[in-house]
Structures are given as structure tokens and as C-alpha cells.
Amino acid sequence: MTAQGKVILETHGLTKRFGGLVAVDHVDFKLEEGELRAIIGPNGAGKSTFLNLISGRLKPTEGKVIFKGEDITGLPCHEITRKGIALSLQLVNIFPELTVFENIWIGAQMRFKHRNPFVKAETPAPIRAKVEEICKMVGLYDKMDEVASNLSHGDQKLLDIGIALSTEPSLLLLDEPLAGLSRKEFAELTEVIRELSKSKTIILIEHNIDAVLKLARKITVLDRGKVIAEGSPVEISENVKVQEVYLGRRR
Ligand SMILES: Nc1ncnc2c1ncn2[C@@H]1O[C@H](COP(=O)(O)OP(=O)(O)OP(=O)(O)O)[C@@H](O)[C@H]1O
Ligand SMILES: [Mg+2]
Fold first, then answer.
1. Which ligand is nearest to the CA of 43?
2. Residue 163: CA count within 13 A, CB half-sphere
3. Starting from the edge strand earliest in sequence, which strands make up the sheet with 21-32, in order?
4. Of all protein residues, whose CA lies closest to atom 9 belonging to ligand 1?
5. In the chain, what is the straight-line distance between the N-terminal and C-terminal CA atoms, in Å?
6. What confidence score (pLDDT) does residue 126 get?
7. Beta strands of the chain (E only): which ranges?
8. Which pLDDT score is estimated for 251?
9. CA–CA dist 236, 67 (Å, integer)
10. Using alpha carbons only, how large is the chain's radius of gyration in Å?
């Protein structure tokens, strides 16, 4: 278990403009180590942009991102990954022609190589063990040798999260991981996320309110780039502003 109460991530006045559009508008955000925070909000609220700013895929127009007390604003993506933040995108992002094992191995060996540039090209035991551990974490241990393109959509999403885990992040950013899954896949992935949240800090963007209420103890609501509410599931579901802008337009 990670320590509760210590701030792992904060943003100060974080802003992203696309031309005249302010997608993320002066967001002040704080996340404690060990938290599973849900971010909800209507389409176009700026949720994905917010995660892209944290992970370095986009550079902010204004404001700061502080991770573990260090200013990481504007650093390139790979450096932010190395510091311990991983992002799983809204769309599945895997190498379809490689196996489950190979997909996860790519990230895992980069991590090891970084520590020891003389690691040989074959799969040394510690990397194999790491890959197997990740496959277990995402429930794909029995499918390690399957080619990714042959997996069901739900298993591809699990693999996508496995790839994010391969860089050993302490903060995992999940952008709508449950979207488009069957009821069974949805239940499986919800359980995987719940298990992961015991050892990782997680930000979860999710439209399905039932899943959010099941997983998160604290919810942040974005609308038109601004945080309009933050609190427990009960506080959020009773918040009139939230009902107006989000629940009223629920998909
Ligand atoms: N690269 C871009 N260039 C221009 N505008 C963009 C870009 N990315 C996002 N936007 C705009 O910024 C706003 C916020 O988009 P964003 O994708 O962050 O919303 P979201 O909350 O993730 O929505 P959804 O629930 O549909 O995924 C939208 O109006 C979107 O059209
Ligand atoms: Mg989005």
C-alpha cells in the first residue's frame, strides 16, 4: 500500500488553448498518493486534453504541472514516462502483429536497458518475470503468446493497460478505458482497475457513472475546461451544477 495524504501530482493554473478555444482553463488540481480519482464531464469538457498535458503529449499554454514535488511542465513525453507517469489513451494503442508478451516486453526492456545498457537482446530472466507479472496483473497470463490482433476488444484494452504498466509507472492515467466494452469485459476491467489501485495512484476518465461510483472515492468534474465541482460520489451526485451540466446531458 502507498502512503495516504502525500500529494503526488498538482497542477497550477493549467491552461491549454487551441486557437480561440480554451480546452483546459486554469485548472488547479491536487492528487494524493494512492488515490483513485475519477474525472467526469460532458464531451469536449477538456478531460483528455488535461491528461495529455500531464503526460507531456501536449504542452500547456500556461500553468504548471508538479509531479512528486518536481516541475515537469513541458518536458517531452519520454522523460515524463521515465519519471513514472503512464497514459493509456482513449483508443486502443498496441502492436497488432506482436504477441501479448512481446507488446509488454518492449516497454519492460526499455526500462531495464535504461538501468543497464549492456543487457543483451534476448529476454533475460528479470524482464521475463516482470512481463509475466504484468500479464497476471491485467489477467492475460494465459494469453501471453496470442497475437494481439486476435484478441477480443476487451483483451486488447487489458493489453493496452499492460503496456502502460510496463514502464513501471507510479501514476497511471486511464482515458475512458471502459468505453465500448461488453458487460462481461466491463466487469473484468473494473476489477483489474480496482486491484491496480491498491498499488498505484490512478486518474480515471469515465463516462459511466455506475463504474465511477463503484471505483472512486473522490470525483473531479470538468466542464468547458474548468473544474466545476470536486468531492465524494454522494456530494457530486447531489451537486446541482453537476446535475445541470453533466448528468442532465448524460450519454
Ligand atoms: N488537437 C486539438 N486541436 C484543436 N482542438 C482540440 C484538440 N484537441 C481537443 N480539442 C478541442 O478541445 C476541447 C476539449 O477536448 P477533449 O478531447 O479534451 O474533451 P474530452 O472531455 O476528453 O471529451 P470526450 O468526452 O468527447 O472525450 C474540445 O472542444 C475539442 O474539440
Ligand atoms: Mg476525451
1. 1
2. 21
3. 21-32, 7-18, 62-67, 70-71
4. 49
5. 35
6. 84
7. 7-18, 21-32, 36-40, 62-67, 70-71, 85-88, 171-175, 201-205, 218-223, 226-231
8. 44
9. 26
10. 18
Which residues have CB less than 5 Å away from ligand 2 (the ion)?
A: 47-48
* pLDDT in the model for residue 1: 46
91 lines ligand 1 (CB under 6 A): no
10-residue mean pLDDT series, the chain (251 residues): 76 97 98 97 96 97 98 95 93 92 89 57 79 96 97 96 95 95 94 96 91 91 96 92 73 44
Measured N-to-C along each axis, helices 125-137 and 183-196 cross at an angle, to the nearest 10 degrees, of: 120
Instruction: Quote the Cα angle for 140-143-146, to 5°.
Output: 130
d(CA 135, CA 130): 9
Residues in contact with 72: Cβ distance below 8 Å, sequence separation at least 6, in sequence order: 56, 65, 66, 79, 80, 83, 85
Angle, helices 125-137 vs 153-165, to 10°: value is 130
For residue 35, the model assigns a pLDDT of: 97
Cα of 110 vs its chain's centroid, Å = 20
- Domains, the chain, in order of start with CATH, read 1-84+171-251 (3.40.50.300), 92-168 (no CATH)
Which candidate, 104, 102, 99, places its Cα nearest to that of 138?
Answer: 104
Which residue from 14, 16, 21 has its CB within 8 A of the most atoms of ligand 1, so it is best to mutate? 21
**CA 96 to ligand 1 center in whole angstroms:** 27
- The CA 44 to ligand 2 mean position distance, Å, reads 7
The Cα–Cα gap between 170 and 187 comes to 24
